[in-house]
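Exercise 7.
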Amino acid sequence: MKKILLASLALVLSGCASYPDNVSVADGTELTSFEEVSKSDSALIGKTVRWSGIIAKVSNEKKVTKFDVLYYPASTNGRPKTSDQPLGRFRVVMEGFIDPAIYKQGKAITALGQLKASETAKIGEYEYEYPTLISKNIHLWGPLQKAPQVQFNYGWHGVQPNWYWRGGVRHVYIIGQGKTKSPAAQAKPKLSHD
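Solution. The predicted structure, written as tokens, is:
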């Protein structure tokens, strides 16, 4: 019974947070972390990586597009956790033209690919060595949506234990999606009688 419970719990939890299909890998695939590559990447060339971050720069060259990305650790679904400290930068190289109006600076991405030799480029006057990956799959994350919050206001009389007490009106405030609605601003429901 205990094994069945643990197996069902593992199955339920594995379905809760998974990476998007275009950057997911088969179970058991060994992924190289950003921290490992930062130490010495020459021995790791060809290894599979899946990194997340915020686009700092997009460069379209003749046959490839290069993304300079500020690395953030990934959350359980692959989205960069921008509440954490960035750990450095990396470069993503993709074949062909990728529209910089869609994949623009400040957007969150997760990239899956193979490591290649590091590339050096300037950030201002500083020569920065970018751990670089060749990618065929990038996931562009949309804006993060906050769930609306519902708050109850019981008025000056507080919470009454008896449901039939008619001492006041309970107001409901819905806060979310950038708007706050008070009871006076909410539309009254229309009732129709046949």
